Amino acid sequence: MPLARLLLCFIQCSLAAAVLLPAVAGAANLPAASQLYASGTRDAAPSDSATPHALKAGIERLRTGTWWEANRKIRPELAKVGDLMFLLPLADKQLEPSSDAIGRVQRLREALRSHLTRAPAGWGRLVAQVRAERVKAGDASAVLLADALVNEVRYRDGTDGSYYAPARFFAESGVCKDFAVAKYLLLRDAGFDIARLRLVSLAPRYNNTPDDWHVILVVQIDGASEPLALDSPSAPTVKRAGETASEASASSGPSALLGAILAGREPAGAVLRAPAGPLTAPLSRSGQARRPLATVFNEQGSRSFERAAPGALRRASAAGRSANAMYVDEMGESWKVDGSATFPKWRVVVDQADARAKPGPAAGLIRVVAAR
Predict the structure, then answer these.
(1) Over 60: is that where the pLDDT of 128 sits?
(2) How many Cβ atoms sit within 10 Å of the Cβ of residue 40?
């Protein structure tokens, strides 16, 4: 009997090890950021955000969506990417990040390090009130408040290429990237999981276009709702509530209202009644919905959504962009851009050979061809 019990115990232990070891090994192979996220140090991400169904739907949107070509790169529309930017992991080992993406992540990390050393006076009040709004009314309301607060800093063009930490941004003002970084850090400090936050770089639609490169923050509230785009005001900004004409024309710094909030003389919610207001909207209804998306990133890494134009040969006349431009696609068939400079749609197709070589979500995002 003792031998039988010993044998039974051995079999039970073996079965338990067979079940547990793969899970332990898988956890050990997670990237450091994934281990931090899995440990629950911040809010749990939406439980259904990585379901195969959601991933398949996101890739299908790209296949049927509009892609823009400029400067020999093609990029999908922001609204068509949608929640796919959260479903696909950042810093995918199968995809080599571009030098632009690497630079953006590095500048964000530098801004974060600077912020951890020095924050603006009154920053803790903003964080506390965004956190309180989150407890009281939920994530969407807290995001709306954070967006409106940061948009009370005046826009000032002509800054350098670095990403300003909030202390410098509040003192000197800045451009779109600095607004986006301040919103990212405000939500981060208020307890939002960075897995729900993506800084997004948007490219011009055409060569020689009035559109410039633009950076916004996109926030995933939950797995069911469309992500929110948090845009920044442009220059010149409108006059804020409570400002005199001389204050409104000031070249830098927070508005009079934000200054009062930072000093504790006004509640944070007062910005929601200000004329400038928040610039928050679902991706598909935001002012940037039709813009081509190049890169999404946060402090953990980046993912590029741009592809090299597939072997096209451009033969434009001396009249330039106003004339019809002829192209030859990768299949050797010609197509052209009309006089309005409207490019045809591009679609993502699955290369079966490449899919076998590189299994996983990225396999459906490799080849891009012109739709007919």
Answers:
(1) yes
(2) 9
Residue 33 and residue 31: Cα distance in Å, rounded? Answer: 5
Q: Whole-structure pTM over 0.85, yes or no? A: no
Q: Is 212 helix (H, G, I), strand (E, B) or coil?
A: coil
Query: CA 105 → CA 85, 162, 172, 244, distances in Å?
Result: 16, 11, 22, 39
Same domain, yes or no, for 143 and 268?
A: yes
Q: Which of 260, 288, 304 is the last residue of a domain?
A: 304
Cα separation, 145 vs 296, in Å, equals 23
pLDDT value of position 225: 86
**What are 28's two structure tokens?**
């050990």
The answer on 126 and 227 residing in a single domain is yes
Same domain assignment for residues 259 and 229 = yes
Region 35-59: mean pLDDT is 53
- Answer whether residue 44 is part of any domain: no
Give 84-121 pLDDT, tens digit per residue: 999 988 876 666 777 888 899 999 999 999 999 999 99
pLDDT at 53 over 80: yes
Classify 194 as helix, strand or coil.
helix
Does residue 279 or residue 45 have the better pLDDT? Answer: 279
**pLDDT score of 265 more than 80:** yes
271 and 225 in a single domain? The answer is yes
What's the burial of 286, exposed, middle or buried (CB within 10 Å: 0-12/13-18/19+)?
buried
Tell me, yes or no, whether 34 lies in a domain.
no
Could you give the 3-state DSSP secondary structure of residue 76? strand
The pLDDT of residue 94 is 66
**Does any domain span residue 30?**
no
Residues ≥6 apart with Cβ < 8 Å to 156: 172, 173, 174, 175, 235, 251, 252
Q: Are residues 228 and 96 in the same domain?
A: yes
Give yes or no: residues 286 and 326 share one domain.
Answer: no
pLDDT of 18 strictly over 80: no
Residues 6+ apart with CB under 8 A from 287: 231, 279, 281
- Residue-range definition of the domain harbouring residue 64: 52-304
Mean pLDDT, the chain, integer: 74
Residues 169 and 76 in one domain: yes
Q: Which residues, at least 6 apart from 179, have a Cβ–Cβ distance to it below 8 Å? A: 150, 151, 153, 155, 169, 232, 233
Q: Are residues 92 and 186 in the same domain?
A: yes
